[in-house]
Amino acid sequence: MTQPVVVFVDLDGTIMVNPFERAVWPALLGDIAARAGQPLEAVREAVEAEYALRQADAAYPPLRAMDWDDIAQTVAGRWGMTVEGSAEALVRQYAASHSNVLPGAEAALRDLAAAHRALVVATKGLAKYQQPVLDALGLTPLFSAVLTPDSHNGLKRDRRFFGAWPEQTQLQIMVGDRYDDDVLYPAGHGFKTVWIPPLESVPTRLHSKDPFARALLYPYADDQPVSADALLLNLSELPDAVRRLEMSILGFTDR
Q1: What is the pLDDT of residues 153-187, one digit of tens each?
Q2: Cα maximum dimension of the chain
Q3: Is residue 213 part of a domain?
Q4: What count of other Cβ atoms lies within 10 Å of the Cβ of residue 103?
Q5: Angle between helix 87-94 and 25-36 (nearest 10)
Q6: What pTM, to 2 d.p., does this model score?
Q7: Using CB atoms within 10 A as the burial measure, which of 52, 81, 229, 233 is most buried?
Q8: Number of domains in the chain
């Protein structure tokens, strides 16, 4: 075991913005809407409903559950047509021009670089949609590995998604913006969790608290039964939160 700590980092909404909303969906769904004679919003709702249906079925094949091209083709088929383009091709086309790194993300990741700590991408998106964006934004070299559903045929709710990293490390930390994928499921795997919820959901009275007190006092919803270990307002708080977890659990950090 060369690195006792692994920090799993989510991508979309956590450290970057992908090109789907800005470029991929307008082109792909717009084409379906035009040829099917349907309102764009109706096509989007159909795609979102198909995605939700697949997510709700734990037995659904993980790769198909996250395959936007397969989802789009399924929806288009209900109107008796096929999709002529592909989300994969559009992602590659627009990865550089319609994606961006979120403020403070690169600085936080570089601050966390240390010999005892592995930084590993843990994203629910398939590799064909995520790797081109990571490469275009220059983020790939900051990570030791990239985990996607393709890696071990699982989603974050599945322990196998994370491969051998939990057995090879003493401390596992999940960082992300989604409660289910980045808090609930990882906590169930025994990981520590660092959550970055929508800023508007964090009461102003908690802004002055430190991330660990904030996580305890946050008003979780009824369907959020597990508290995060730390709750961040922005990525500038991430390095200190990781170091405090390391110190409290392992008794050391890089400072």
Answers
A1: 999 999 999 999 999 999 999 999 999 999 999 99
A2: 62
A3: yes
A4: 11
A5: 140
A6: 0.96
A7: 229
A8: 2
User: What are the structure tokens assigned to 41, written together?
Assistant: 């919003």
CATH code for the domain in which residue 186 is found: 3.40.50.1000
pLDDT band at 255 (very low <50, low <70, confident <90, very high): confident
Chosen domain end from 36, 66, 94: 94
Q: For 59-101, how does the pLDDT look when each residue is reduced to its tens digit (9 = 90+)?
A: 999 999 999 999 999 999 999 999 989 999 999 999 999 999 9
| Three-class SS of the chain | CCCCEEEEECCECCCEECCHHHHHHHHHHHHHHHHHCCCHHHHHHHHHHHHHHHHHCCCCCHHHHCCHHHHHHHHHHCCCCCCCCCHHHHHHHHCCCCCEECCCHHHHHHHHCECCEEEEEECCCCHHHHHHHHHHCCCHHHCCEEECHHHHCCCCCCHHHHCCHHHHCCEEEEEECCHHHHHHHHHHCCCEEEECCCHHHCCHHHCCCCHHHHHHHCCCCCCCCCCCCEECCCHHHHHHHHHHHHHHHHCCCCC
Q: What residue type is 177 in one-letter code?
A: D
Domain that holds residue 41: 20-94
The rounded distance, in Å, linking the Cα atoms of 207 and 143 is 30
CB-count burial class (<10 Å; 0-12, 13-18, 19+) for 1: exposed
Six token digits for residue 252? 């050391």
